Amino acid sequence: MAILTEARPQVARRAKGVRNRDGWWAAFFLGPQLTLLAVFLVFPLGFAVVLAFMRWDGLGQKEWVGLDNFAAQLSDPEFGLAVWNTVKLALLTAPFGLALALLIAVALNSVKGGGFYRVLYFMPVVTSSVAVALMWQIILAGDEHGVLNASLERWFGITGPDWLGDPGWVIVAIAVVTIWSSLGLNVVIFLAGLQTIPPQIVEAARMDGAGSLRIFRSVTLPLLSPTIFFSTVVAVISSFQAFDQIYVLVNPKYNDGARTIVYQVYELGFQDFQFGMSSAAALILLVLTLLVTLVQFAAQKRLVHYDT
Amino acid sequence: MKRALAILGVLALATTACSGSGGGNVPGTSGGQGQVTVRWSTWGSAEDLKLYEKFTDDFHKRHPGIRLKLESVADYEDYHPKLLAQLTSKTAPDVFFVGDDYIGKFVSAGVITPLDDQLSGPESKSKPEDFFEGIYGGAKRDGKIYGVPNDTNPEVLWFDKQALKDAGITEDPAALHEAKQWTMAKYLEMNAKLKTAGKAGSIFWNWYGSTYSMINGFGGKVWDGGKFVATTDAKSREALQTLAKGYQDKTFLSADTLPDSNGPSTQFLKHKVGFYAGGRWVIDSLKKGGELDNYDIVPFPSQTGEPMPGAVAASYLSINKDTKLPKEAFTFLTEFVGKDGQLLRLKGGGAVPSVKGAEQVVLEDKYPAHAQTFLDVRDTGFANYAEEVSVPGLTAAINEHLMKVWTGKVGFDEGMTELQKLVESKLG
C-alpha cells in the first residue's frame, strides 16, 4: 500500500510530462494546417461576410451600405433566374445521377472482375473538368456537326435541339454532363456502402424466399440509406456550386438558361467589380445551401436507417 | 538532440519551399549581374504573343541591364480579374495592358501612373501628340494621360465582291465611298438584295464597335453630356431598330451566336454573306480561303455619304503606380508604343499602329486594295466612350442586353426601356 502511495506522484508527473509533450507535438503538426485554414478559409469567409454589407470595387474605398446589396440581389430578376436554374440543375442531377450510380454499383457488386469497369466509370472523375467540357461541346454542338444531333438525325430521323444554345435545353445538357462526370465517384461510394452490408442478412432474406428485387427494396436500400443520404447531400451541394464546366461549356453571358448562382457571383465580382454585391449573392447561396441541407437532415430521421 | 535536429530540418525545408524564385511576385525585381527585371502583362494566344519576341530580343540587346518578363493570360475575359487581384494585393506587374472597357476604372482607382511628364520628356520615344486624339478614350482624363494606345483595330466593313455580284449588285462600295455616295440607304439596299438572293447581308460581332458605328451612321448619338441617349435619341433608336429587325429576319447575322463549325469567317469565305464587320485581323481568316482579291474594305456608311467617325478598338499600356522601377518601366513602355517598336512588333500581324508615322505596316502589302481606309478610320475614329468605360462591366452588360433584343427574346420598345434602366442602375 505504501509502495503504491509513494509511486503515485511519480506516475502523475510522468503522465503530465507526456501530456505536455503530446500538446507540443499536436501544436507542431496541427499548427500549419490550422494556420492555412485560418488564412485561406476563416479569414476570407469573414471578409466576404463583412463585404456583403459594403460597396467596394476592389480598389477604391469601401462604403457601408447595410442590407442594400441583399435587397438589390433579391429583387434582381437575373438573380432570381440564377436561383431557379441552380435549383433545376440540382433537381435534375441529384436524383437521376444517384439512381444511375446506384444501379451501376449494384450491378458491379455482383460482377466478377468488376475492377475494369470501376476504372472506366471512374475515369471522368479524374479528367480535367475543362477537358470534359470541351469534349461535350463537340458532342452537343447544335448544328449538323454535333455528334449527338448528327446521330439522332441519322438513326432516328429526329432533328435535335441546339442543346447548348437553346435556353430551354441548356440546363438539361449541363445536367447530363454533370451526371456523366460525377457518376464514377458516386458508383465508388455506393460500392463501398454495398460492401458493408452483412452477407448473412442478404442470405437470410434469400432463405426466407425473397427474390432479388425484394432483397434490393427491403434489405439493400434500407441498409444503404446512410450512404445514399451522404451522396444526396454532397450531390446537391455540388450542383449548387456548379461553375467551371458551365463556364467552359456555355458562356452564361450569352445564354440566360445557363446562368447559375455561382456564375452570378463570378460576374458581379470579376466582370463588374461589384465585390459587395458579389459577396451578398455568395452569402445568399450559402444560406440557401444550409437550408436545403437542413431539410435533408430533417428528412433523414424518417428515411435513413443506421441499424444493421 | 535528435528531435531538435528534426525540427531544424523541417524548418529548413519549409524555408526553402517558401522562398520561391527570389521575390518574383513583387513589381520590379533585381536579377543577377546588375540586371533588373521589368514584369509586364497582356492577354493573347501563343500566336499573338509570338509577335512580341522580335521586340523583346531587340530590347534586350539595346538595354542589357533590363530583362523583360512577360506574364500573359490567354483569355481577355480572364485577364482583367487577374490584374485587379494583383493590383489589390500589390503584386501587379510594373507595366500592363488594359482593355478599353476597363481603363476608365483603373484611372478612377488611382492605380496607374500619369504619364504626361515622361511622355513629353527627353527620354520619350512616343510623344503624346504622336497618337490620334480619338483613340485615347478612357485613358485620358482631365487632360492627363494614364495609358498609351499600343495599337488599334479600326472597325470597317469587309465586303465580298463575289457575293455582291451573285446578288446582282453592280456598284462597288469602296468606289461609292470614294465618290462620297456611300450612304446608309445604299448599304441597307445592298443588304436587302443579298437577302433576296438567299444570302445574309452582313455579319456583326455584338460589340460597341459595330453597334455604335451603325448608330453614328444613322446620325445618332450614344452618349450626350454624360447621359446614355442611345435609347432616346430618335436617330439612334432608328439605327437600333434597323439592327433588331435585320437580325430577326436574318438580313444580319450575329457572329457571336454562329456555331464554331460554321462561323463568320467560314460564311464569308463561302460567299454566303456580303459584308463582315471587323478589323485588320480579318486578313488572317481570308488567307485561309485563298481568294484574297475577292475582298476589299469600306468604312461604315453615313446618311449623307460624307465620311463619319468610326469605332476603333484600342488597348492601352500603363505603368503600375507601385512599381519600384519607374524609369525602366517607362523605357519599356515608350519603346513598345513608339514608332520603331510598333513597326517591329506589328509587321505581319493583324493590327493597325496607333502611332503616327508607322503607316507602312498597313500599306506595304497593298492589301486590301483600300487598306488606307484602316488609317482613315483610325485617324478620325473614336475609342469607346469615357462615360461608358468608367464603369466596369457596363459595355458588356449593354451588349448582353442588346443580344436579347437582337434575338427577339425581348421586344424592341421593352428592350430599350430596360436598357436605359440597366445603364442608369450601373451608373448609380
Distance between the termini of chain A: 48 Å
Number of helices of chain B: 20
Quaternary assembly: heterodimer
Which pair has the most extensive contact? A-B, 20 and 28 residues
Separation of the first and last Cα atoms of chain B? 66 Å
Proportion of residues in extended strands of chain B: 15-25%
Task: Describe the secondary structure blueprint for this structure.
The complex is a heterodimer of chains A (308) and B (428).
Chain A: H1 2-51, E1 54-55, E2 63-64, H2 68-74, H3 77-109, H4 115-126, H5 129-140, H6 147-156, H7 170-195, H8 199-207, H9 212-240, H10 244-249, H11 261-271, H12 275-303
Antiparallel strand pairs in A: 1-2
Chain B: H1 2-19, E1 29-30, E2 36-43, H2 46-50, H3 53-62, E3 66-73, H4 76-88, E4 95-99, H5 103-109, H6 116-120, E5 140-141, E6 144-145, E7 148-154, E8 156-160, H7 161-166, H8 173-178, H9 184-196, E9 200-204, H10 208-217, E10 223-224, E11 227-228, H11 234-248, E12 252-254, H12 264-269, E13 273-278, H13 282-289, E14 295-298, E15 312-319, H14 326-337, H15 339-346, H16 360-363, H17 372-380, H18 386-389, H19 394-406, H20 412-427
Parallel strand pairs in B: 2-3, 2-4, 9-12, 9-13
Antiparallel strand pairs in B: 1-2, 4-15, 5-6, 7-15, 8-13, 8-14, 10-11
Helix pairs in contact in B: 10-11, 14-15, 19-20
Highlighted features:
heterodimer, A: 308 residues, two-stranded antiparallel sheet, 2 strands, 76% helix, B: 428 residues, five-stranded mixed sheet, 20 helices, 15 strands, 44% helix, Multiple sugar transport system substrate-binding protein (chain B)
Give structural notes:
The complex is a heterodimer of chains A (308) and B (428). Chain A has helices at 2-51, 68-74, 77-109, 115-126, 129-140, 147-156, 170-195, 199-207, 212-240, 244-249, 261-271, 275-303, and strands at 54-55, 63-64. With 308 residues, chain A is mostly helical. The longest helix of chain A is centred in the first third of the chain and has 50 residues, at 2-51. Helices cover 76% and strands 1% of the residues of chain A. Chain A is globular and about 75 Å long. In chain A, strand 1 (54-55) and strand 2 form a beta hairpin. Chain A starts with a helix and ends in a 5-residue tail after the last helix. Chain A contains twelve helices and two strands, in the order H-E-E-H-H-H-H-H-H-H-H-H-H-H. Chain A has a two-stranded antiparallel sheet with strand order 1-2. By secondary structure, chain B is an alpha/beta fold. Helix content of chain B is 44%, strand content 16%. Chain B is built from 20 helices and 15 strands. In chain B, strands 1, 2, 3, 4, 7 and 15 form a six-stranded mixed sheet that branches. Chains A and B meet through helix 11 of A and helix 4, helix 5 and helix 19 of B.
